[in-house]
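Let's do one together. I've listed all components of the complex below, 225 residues spread over two lines.
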Amino acid sequence: KQEVTQIPAALSVPEGENLVLNCSFTDSAIYNLQWFRQDPGKGLTSLLLIQSSQREQTSGRLNASLDKSSGRSTLYIAASQPGDSATYLCAVMRNAGNMLTFGGGTRLMVKP
Amino acid sequence: NAGVMQNPRHLVRRRGQEARLRCSPMKGHSHVYWYRQLPEEGLKFMVYLQKENIIDESGMPKERFSAEFPKEGPSILRIQQVVRGDSAAYFCASSPAGAETQYFGPGTRLLVL
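Okay, and this is what the predicted structure of the assembly comes out as:
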């Protein structure tokens, strides 16, 4: 059974700092891994999706890496801004079209 | 193309009542997934449906919970005789067949008094 863990559970940083969020998963037989953002009381917004054959994906100030063999992914946020404050969730998909298995999330607060 | 629609957005029920949550997938999407997010926790898979078929219900509680995705109309997640522990945010996602990602709705927040 796949288990996904995110560390830290909460993080508070000053504006402008670079930061790294961590995600680990127990079963390396994944199809892809995805990072989502969730704002309080809202739905999920997809940030980055990494296929199992890929090592990283970038979008603006965000960079996600994947080391499938060790069961780890990181989300790097450069030059953090108060608008980045949200909960960040990572999720893995075992096979195309299957369910997503989510981590518990990292709650990020960026202080002005 | 409208996104995934869920209604109601907020639902209050008393213990013992029934809750019906609706999900309209994105146009052209034939697959629907339901997830539950308990307070301070991540999302947990409940059920995966295609039109008129339940594909995987391994995450559904064995009692009181049911889901359907009829040929016409939205997918329905039904919770009978709700208890306080059912209070959570319920998210629906949809995708085309065999897709590599799912598109999430805004969720229904259920509060059981």
